[in-house]
Amino acid sequence: MAYPYNLTNLLIASRELLQESTARFWTDAILTAYINEAIRTMAETTGCYRTIESVVTTPLTRLVSIAGYKCIAIEYNNMALIKITPLQIGHNSQDGITPQYWFEDNKQIGIDPIPPSAYTLTAYSCAAPSNLVSGTDVPLVPYALHGIIKYYVVAKALYQDKKSSTAGQYMGMFNKELDFMSRSLLPDLPDSVESVRFQ
Q1: Which domain holds residue 157?
Q2: Residue 39: which residues within 8 A CB-CB, separation 6 or more?
Q3: What is the pLDDT of residue 188?
């Protein structure tokens, strides 16, 4: 049996709600784009898709690029760096020359003190999941959210067909379910460095 929420089955479920079993008005390409948009929206709204990546500092350069859109924590040698604001740069007590503090700056992180050489850091961040392309691809967001993807897809498709009232109802269902799931079922966003080590 195929996984219930792979791309093929998400297309079928969306078409059932649209009452269009074969592509007459909405092509699979259009519905797939809406499916991927729904997954990105869920990930960005809830912060439920997180990644761990290694980044390397450049000597005498403060900023380091990260792949995610929001950084949660940074570690050097399995020790957490302390998050600061850019205004605090140079105003914190420092113990040596290794990275000790960090701040976020538009898909980059700033390191304090400025690294005199290359250091490998571990970045914990929220990121956008990859798009579904193949029929067997599955969403990279928590399983609890997979069942509401079809509501978003149907809402976007009906907006495209100028059926705003019905589209609004489906979008409302999507938003309410997403809000409920994110508050009740998904783990809270981390509130300490220890709780961000999610692998």
Answers
A1: 7-47+131-184
A2: 129, 131, 132, 139, 140, 141, 149
A3: 54
